[in-house]
Amino acid sequence: MSEQVKLTDITIPTRRHRKQHDPERLANSMREVGLLQPIVLTGEKVLVAGLHRLRAAELLGWETITAKFVSGDELDA
Q1: Which segments in the chain show pLDDT lower than 70?
Q2: How many whole angstroms separate alpha carbon 74 and alpha carbon 20?
Q3: How many CB atoms lie within 10 A of CB 68?
Q4: What is the pLDDT of residue 76?
């Protein structure tokens, strides 16, 4: 089940070392068709998947984003 979460409530783990891509293109797509795939969070609202979607939502000025929650801690997720 998915729900709307405030962007300011989401914690981004500091251990993320993946290359960051410019989210502008994704933001343009999300502006036109919306968010097709929710981001994934732990129950404590720690980001598991969807960093680029989150950054694109920030660029668009969204206050909330659709998120799915997974049980367990960050390592389990």
Answers
A1: 16-19, 72-77
A2: 20
A3: 15
A4: 59
pLDDT of residue 27: 96
Cβ contact 27:54 at 8 Å: no
The CATH number for 2-11+22-70, chosen from 3.30.160.20, 3.90.1530.10, 3.40.190.10, 3.20.20.70, is 3.90.1530.10
pLDDT of residue 44: 92
Domain ranges for the chain: 2-11+22-70
CB atoms near residue 5 (< 10 Å)? 18
CA gap 23, 51 in Å, rounded: 10
Q: What is the DSSP letter of 70?
A: E
Contact (CB, 8 A) for 59 and 27: yes
Start-to-end CA distance of the chain, whole Å, equals 16
